[in-house]
Amino acid sequence: MSEIEQSRSARIGPFTVIGKGTRIGNNSNISNSVIGKGCSIGSNVSITGSYIWDSVTIEDGCDIRHAIICDGVVIKSGAALEPGVVLSFKVITKTPPFLFNFS
Fold first, then answer.
1. 103: CB partners within 8 A, 6+ apart
2. What digits encode the pLDDT tens for the residues 10-60?
3. Homologous superfamily assigned to 5-96
């Protein structure tokens, strides 16, 4: 059994670590990031320069850049997280269109 499940069309870029039991969907791109164990990353997701802790769910079509996502967070489809965003433990985002910015 594989340590992770990765779609053939998903791309994992340089300087990226993926935790055990994580699933990555079609056409998703992850680079310069750390993804914790047991995460579920949907299709058409882009993650750059971010720290995703354990048991996080990122639904389809999300764009996450230079963010920190704590354990148990659920990010609904289509959400965009701008640089500097920190989502605390077990947060569930609203259904987009919704843009999170650092303030």
1. none
2. 999 999 999 999 999 999 999 999 999 999 999 999 999 999 999 999 999
3. Hexapeptide repeat proteins (2.160.10.10)
